[in-house]
Structure formats: structure tokens, C-alpha cells
Amino acid sequence: MIRAYRESDLESISEMVAKGRPSISHELVATRMARHGIVYEVDGKIQGIAARTTQRETPAGSRVNAWVYTDPVFRRRGVGSLLWRELMSRMETVPKILATSYRVDKGDPTQFFTRRGFAFWLAGHCLGYRGDHIEYTPTLTVENYTEDRFWDFVNLTNEGFLSLRQQHDILPHLCYPPGFNEDDLRERRLTFHQEDIHFFRDSAGSVVGYTYLEGPAIDTIVVAQSHMRKGYGREMMCFCINTLLDRGYELITLEVADTNTGARRLYDSVGFELMETVHDARIQR
Q1: Is the domain of 109 the same as that of 19?
Q2: Fewer beta carbons below 10 Å: N end or C end of the chain?
Q3: Is 199 within 8 Å of 155 (Cβ atoms)?
Q4: Taking a C-beta distance cutoff of 8 angstroms, is the pair 258, 103 a contact?
Q5: 223, 236 in Cβ contact below 8 A?
Q6: 190: domain CATH number?
Q7: Which residues of 143-179 are buried (b: 16+ CB within 10 A; e: fewer)?
Q8: Quick one: angle between helices 150-167 and 182-191, nearest 10?
Q9: Is residue 270 part of a domain?
Q10: Is 113 domain-assigned?
Q11: 157-187 pLDDT tens trace
């Protein structure tokens, strides 16, 4: 039976997901399932789940991120197919971009998504840190996101992700190209995770970068091109690790594109270890 997700399902779903995707935290499972989540249940046992984001407009057009996961014990029994059909049937309109991600180093489901029209987009690695606090000497001043940092956020994001987006044909190449919905982004930055976006200034007062935390994950670390190779990336990383450990997380995660070898060297050097290799795929109409 396929039914809507209930909050009481969360513990059992988190345990199920941990079997095959340990990098996906309890908090991230809760966030994903709260958005149009459905479960496949037989005799009180949840065998699989699916969820999608609410369709939103991006500079590249309307976009939805979808997620399907089947308990490893019940794979190859059609559970994923049933969930996928139900998830798609509940979409009001067809987005221009439908995106997903899946693990490929264990139980590779590439064929499942290829049969549904997905094409490979980019590869990444999920890394985990289980160590202690890191001792370092701070040289940067840290401050939370406020509205007067809006354009710093926009410009640093555009600069930091331009090369990656060009390399992997992610259109538009700028995350926030001319004409983007400024009012919507301003509202989202002030409404969601404002306390988890940290800006870093040097002794001259210049903004050198920002970080974005989401639950136990380090979602983003961006250093301005003009301030690279000064050790700021490592200092910002140490700040993130210590902050998340202070919040009580024992496992800190992040994801890095396999082509971003410089960032991967930094993460390895502070003690992150490989947990999963994933592929991002998309249907782009």
C-alpha cells in the first residue's frame, strides 16, 4: 500500500535509509519526507519511500528534485517503480528540470533512472568526519547572515560555482544571473537557515567568503577568488566542524564534486573520509 508520509514514520525510515545511504542524516530525511513524501508499506513494514520538492522557478526554468529509496531487503521487487509512478502522478505540472541523485558504489540504481529518462549530470563523493574539535588560530571575524550581506552572498555564490557549472553544463552558468528574482531570494535567505550562513571578514574588513550549514552537513564553503591560497578555506572548514560538534553532531557530512580535486584534498587533510559515491542525474526538457 502506498500512503502519505506521517511524522511517526521518521524513526523507522531513518533506520532504513542508514542501511544504504549513511550520509543522509536523520534531519535531512525529515526535511525531504516533509515535502510530498510517500511510503510503500506492507503489513506495517515500510519497504520504500519517495519524495519530491515543491516545484519552484529557477533562472533555468521550473525545477523539481525527486528522491526514491527502497530498503535493500526489498529491492528488485518493483517497489521503486510503484513509488516512482505514484510520485509522478501527484505532480500538478511537468517541470522543465527534474533532478535526482543516487549512490553508485553500492547497489548501483543507474538503470532504474536511465529507463525513466534521466541522463548523467555529474558525479560526487559524500564524505564524513567523526573526529574531535580542531585546534586552530582564528584570523577571520565571523558574523551571521544579515540583509546587508545579500549582495555578498549573491556575488560570492556566482563566483564560487561558475567554473563547476560551466564544466558540467549547468545552465545558467551563474547561479543568480541578471534578472533573477531578487525579492524571492531575499525572503528565503532571511526565512530559512539565516543562523547557519556565516560570513568571514579579514583584518581589513573585506569579506573573504561564507559557509552554509544544514543540520549536520556542511552544505557550502565559498572563498572569494581574490582571497584564495591564504589558508582561509581551512580556517572556515575548522570553524564549521567545531560549530557542528558544539551542536552535538557526532557525524559531520559534506558532498564534493569529483572534479573539485582541490577541495577534496582540503577535506581529506582535516580528517574527512569517503562514505559514498553518488551520481546526480536530470531530465531537462
Answers
A1: yes
A2: N
A3: no
A4: no
A5: yes
A6: 3.40.630.30
A7: eebeeebeebbbebbbbbbeeebeeeebebbbbbeee
A8: 110
A9: no
A10: yes
A11: 999 999 999 988 888 899 999 999 899 899 9
Specify the number of domains making up the chain.
2
Task: Indicate if 108 and 54 belong to the same structural domain.
Answer: yes
Asked if residue 93 and residue 156 are part of one domain, the reply reads: no
Domain-terminating residue out of 124, 150, 177: 124
Domain residue limits at 209: 141-250
**Residues 47, 45: Cα–Cα separation, whole Å:** 6
pTM: 0.91
Q: From 174, 146, 129, 171, select the one nearest 266 (Cα to Cα).
A: 129
Q: Are residues 163 and 207 in the same domain?
A: yes
What percentage of residues in the chain have a pLDDT greater than 90? 87
**Pure H helices in the chain:** 10-20, 26-33, 79-89, 110-114, 150-167, 182-191, 232-246, 261-270
Task: Note whether 171 and 118 are same-domain residues.
Answer: no
pLDDT digits (tens, 9 = 90+) for 88-121: 999 989 999 999 999 999 888 999 999 999 999 9
46 vs 5: CA distance, rounded Å = 10
Cell triple for residue 252? 559531520
According to DSSP, the residues that pair with 51 across neighbouring strands are 67
Count of alpha carbons within 13 angstroms of residue 21, beta-carbon side: 23
